[in-house]
Write a structure and sequence with these properties.
The protein is mostly beta strands. The chain is built from 2 helices and 40 strands. Helix content is 6%, strand content 48%. It is rod-shaped, with a radius of gyration of 45 Å.
Length: 479
Amino acid sequence: MKKLLSSLLLVLINNGLSAQVNLTQSLSACYALNGNGNEPVNALTATLSAVTPTVDRFNNPSSALSFNGSTLSCVVLPDDPLLKSTSGMSYGGWIKTYTVIGQYVVFAKTAGTSNFEAYDLVINNTSGYRFRAQKGSGGLTTIADGTTIVSANTWYHVLATVDNTSIKIYVNGVLENTVPSTFSFNYEAGKNVVLGGSNEPGFNLPFNGSMDNMRFYNRVLNASEVNALYTSDPSCLPVPVASFSITPSIVCPNENIQLQQMATNAPNTWAWQMAGATPSTSPLANPVISFANPGTYTVSLIATNSFGPSAPVTQTVTVKPVPNVTTSANNTLICNGNSVVLLASGANTYTWSNAQTFPAINVSPSVTTTYSVIGTATNGCQNYAAITINVSPCTALKQNATYNHFEVYPNPSSGIFMISATNEIKEVTIFDVLGELILKTDLRAHETKQIDISDKDTGIYFVKLKVEGTTLTRKIIKE
């Protein structure tokens, strides 16, 4: 239980400290030393001299610089006020020495002649070789030695903070010493800050080892910030500049849209917001989304790296409307062997499920069949509609004779019947079961006429047809 409580307390402390971390505030320069002297924060490009690319502590190739221990082997930083604070600064990074001797890691020259270091970071023999931070002005010097004994071929994260009150030295994220220092900074004009030596012919302790991710801040970092540099070692790049592409940006409903993040400065997390989309949020670098309904929508991205989040950037997506495709037929219930015209409307072009491409098509199904049609509007968007044609054998009212042929279909029906005949029928009458006349008409030869009794009650009715002196009676059923 005691161990569990201690662990929980440590988590709470670390969470409290992390809330104070800001690794971008007053960052003057950051040198990744990835085989070059590039500096992305303020373009304070360094000059390389007799150094070679080497692996970093993770054995990534060309991710650090190797110094050979000669007086010519160094990295010369610009003579810039951003590297010569007069109020307070923090500086350091990852360091590995090949041989344990006295040597400079960082050097800035003071204007005084009796002491060379305005500020520095060295490996010095003090009852064993240790990391040391110094501040000097004329004959004044303040020294803060670490407690860690330096071993060869071992990577250490070393950072010093110096202001007009004290010097502190941290090794592997841990504060090892604090020494008061109350005099002001005093730099010699025209002298560059140097990594790996002093670049002073009369007073030089050249470095023999590797360096990686050296940083300079124009302020004093707090303990949690130093620990964050040690534990996370963020990229030397500043916060990302978010950017992205949308392909395509004008779409139809439910069409896939590819979002492609294009943020600079090495982002490692992404926060997408797409209200109205599926999905509406995403942590992926390049998500695929879609919108179900027409309209104009906003897509937003925030990209984040170890230094923090980018400003949000937005773009819009336009979702075009779909056509209102409808289908109709002059009859949705036909007799087997008959044909019917299907009509599609609401779009510009059409493709039916039977491969026909006209708005109106003629079909003759032998069984009940559903026909679908895809309509395409002039904007390229499509919609779908379908219609079912029911097929009846129509055997109840078919009469075939040598002198006459007629049909009454469909039967049964909801009240709409079609009557056709090869001969002219002088009189067509419909009666209910009580013998009451419901409807009377006539029918020309080869004519098809619609009989509508849909307003009548369901039940049995009788159709009487008079042709050539003969009366034919057939039963029909209204459902």
